[in-house]
Write a structure and sequence with these properties.
With 136 residues, the chain is α+β, with helices and mostly antiparallel strands. The protein has helices at 19-32, 48-55, 59-75; strands spanning 7-8, 15-16, 80-87, 97-108, 113-123, 126-132. α2 (48-55) runs antiparallel to α3 (59-75). The model has no long low-confidence stretch (mean pLDDT 84).
Amino acid sequence: MATVIPVPTMSTQGFVTDLSGKLDFLLAHFFLADYNQTQLYPGRVTSLPELIQRCGGDAAQAVTLIQRALQDYLGAYYPSVQIDVTPSTPLDVDPSIRVELIIQIAINDGDSVGSFKRLLQAKDSKMSKIIKLNND
């Protein structure tokens, strides 16, 4: 059995070790973290809003930065992580939606393997929607 790295939480669950539970908490941290939330570790907080803001609507740059950030961030908790970030074109083209991305994550936690997909939408350089995609 491989060593599982737990995710500490401030919830009644304490340390989370199951595959999808860990990913849910890690992605929530990534989606909600404030880049400047620490003075002890400046520049070491992985924050999706900060990455989206840094890109300023450039989907190609967002793809590169998010893929690299998630690979590094999730790689600290899972022995094997594959991240694929692709831009998506919305069917109802709203001019204020500047970035829409699909994130596919394949993880291996020793004994467990899982694959997950999320749709991210940024409007006016702010995250507006995060959707869990199923049956794709």
